[in-house]
Design a protein that fits this description.
The protein is of the alpha+beta class. The protein has helices spanning 6-15, 37-56, 72-77, 80-83, 147-152, 154-161, 206-223, 271-286, 321-332, 368-382, 397-407, 417-423, 444-453, and strands at 19-21, 33-35, 61-64, 69-70, 85-90, 97-99, 120-123, 126-129, 139-142, 167-176, 191-201, 231-235, 247-255, 258-269, 301-302, 309-310, 313-320, 333-337, 343-347, 358-362, 389-391, 411-415, 425-430, 436-440. The protein has 3 domains: 6-75 and 126-329, Bira Bifunctional Protein, Domain 2 (BirA Bifunctional Protein, domain 2, 2-Layer Sandwich); 85-123, no CATH class; 354-453, Anticodon-binding domain (Rossmann fold, 3-Layer(aba) Sandwich). The longest helix is centred in the N-terminal third of the chain and has 20 residues, at 37-56. Bound molecules: adenosine-5'-triphosphate. Adenosine-5'-triphosphate binds next to strand 11, strand 14, strand 17 and helix 9.
Length: 454
């Protein structure tokens, strides 16, 4: 089961503190969202799962965290200044602007008029002034993808880590695109995060690595709780390919508003490294400086057998964090009718993604023995390093359970009189089955690790 509509997810996201319209007390800013107390946990958990799979569980990938502000030369030579555009049309009747390739019919979605201009390219990159003098000579771009900094740091990383092909550089971070029509909640926004891997391979091995990565990324999305029946692969036709791509396979997900791209896996060939190698040498010649021996950016690798220096090819799995959060929330959402006819909403997140792993609830908030024991349990469980453990003394256990169902907390632990006066056991209540069982407090940590990590 998933949400019936985007509205259900938007409402839950706001009600429970996952996602808010940014600056909403002033009417918001279109295409910009903020992550609230639970949203930040969910998002961090998704990013951590990606980092684990892409960096820690492999020995051929290094990480990077590069700057957002980008020297315009980088995005000139990557081709973004010239070609990172979407086709835009204007409605002459109501003056609204639309993305031409998103129109179903040649009519304005705002007022229905067919008095539209011809499409023209609109560059999606944001610019900002750098330094105190605003004379137009000194500006930077907010990066439209995290990938470019991986290419421009290629030599820095390879010099400092001495990898052998194939190897990758991974990065998670913000990207900015001045989308003509941001829409569908956090699906298409102007400020978002990407999780990108640039995996460098020997030319000729690129096509088989491309297939390997497509399969591996599909598997990873399944592991995040995304059902295979709502994922599809789209082999992007050649006339739709980005300027750098030889082949792209999009992982499409059935979002509440339709089947759309969740992740793109592109074969970027040697386009970027090749272009930056060539252009930084031209840059050095024009600037009349010797290419710095330390940073001379020949972005190449030596083939250990043939001893030839070659620009490697690169396979790029590029996933949107926000689209991932939306997919994971949609998958987790379910409404159940209970035996007594009442309904409960459950966010059935995989435990590793759940914003709160365990809620510890004292049965009585004014009973010092129960409170002290509950606080000690919270502290002990928190020290396990599994993520957020919440101590919560609202005093109404039933309501607490329902609230934690709705935010997807896998386990609730209740400390009561029996715990402190009789046998030292606590009640552990399972989010999915609603089953409750007594577990000795002194083996609770093992129980939690087994259930949350697994
Ligand atoms: P679309 O065709 O939907 O505009 P794209 O093909 O331009 O996306 P890529 O350049 O391949 O997207 O970017 C890689 C990933 O970054 C996408 O798969 C998506 O998850 C995410 N992404 C791109 N643009 C946005 C956006 N405006 N809002 C949220 N996520 C985005």
């Amino acid at each position: 089961m998933t949400a019936k509509s985007m509205d259900e997810l938007v409402a839950l996201a706001k009600r429970r503190g996952f996602i808010f319209q940014s600056g909403d007390i002033y009417g918001g800013l279109q295409g910009v969202y903020d992550y609230g107390p639970l949203g930040v946990e969910l998002k961090n958990n998704l990013k951590a799962a990606w980092w684990r799979a892409m960096v820690y569980e492999r020995d051929d990938v290094e990480g990077l965290d590069a700057a957002i502000l980008t020297n315009p030369a980088v995005l000139r030579h990557s081709g973004h200044e010239a070609t990172f555009t979407d086709p835009m049309i204007d409605c002459r009747a109501c003056k609204s602007r639309w993305r031409a390739d998103h129109l179903d019919q040649q009519k304005c979605p705002g007022c229905g008029s067919d008095d539209l201009t011809e499409p023209r390219p609109f560059n999606l990159m944001f610019q900002t002034q750098v330094g105190p003098v605003d004379d137009g000579s000194s500006f930077a771009y907010l990066r439209p993808e995290t990938a470019q900094a991986i290419f421009t740091n290629f030599k820095n990383v390879t010099d400092s880590t001495s990898p052998k092909l194939p190897f990758g550089i991974a990065q998670i971070g913000k990207a900015f695109r001045n989308e003509i029509t941001p829409r569908n909640f956090i699906f298409r926004v102007r400020e978002f995060e990407q999780m990108e891997l640039e995996f460098f391979v020997t030319p000729g091995e690129d096509e088989s690595w491309h297939e390997t990565w497509v399969a591996s990324r599909l598997k990873w999305w399944h592991e995040q709780g995304v059902d295979a029946s709502r994922l599809e692969l789209y082999h992007v036709p050649s006339d739709e390919l980005a300027h750098y791509s030889k082949a792209t396979v999009d992982v499409m997900y059935r979002f509440p508003h339709g089947l759309e791209e969740l992740e793109g896996i592109a074969n970027r060939t040697d386009f970027d490294l090749g272009s930056h190698t060539k252009n930084q040498q031209d840059f050095a010649i024009h600037a009349k400086v010797e290419p710095n021996k330390d940073t001379n950016a020949k972005l190449v690798m030596q083939d250990l057998e043939s001893k030839q220096w070659r620009v490697p090819y690169v396979i790029e799995p590029s996933a949107g964090v926000d689209r991932g959060v939306l997919a994971v929330m949609n998958e987790a959402y379910r409404v159940e009718t209970l035996e007594n006819g009442s309904e409960r909403t459950v966010m059935g997140f995989k435990p590793h993604l759940a914003p709160i792993k365990v809620a510890v609830l004292p049965l009585k908030r004014n009973h010092s023995g129960i409170v002290a024991k509950a606080k000690a349990i919270k502290k002990e469980l928190q020290a396990l390093g599994l993520g957020r453990i919440l101590y919560e003394d609202t005093g109404n256990i039933g309501k607490g359970y329902r609230r934690h169902d709705e935010v997807g907390t896998p386990l609730c632990v209740t400390v009561d009189f029996q715990t402190v006066e009789e046998d030292g056991t606590v009640t552990v209540r399972d989010r999915d089955t609603m089953a409750q069982q007594r577990v000795p407090a002194d083996t609770l940590a093992d129980y939690v690790v087994a259930n949350i990590k697994g």
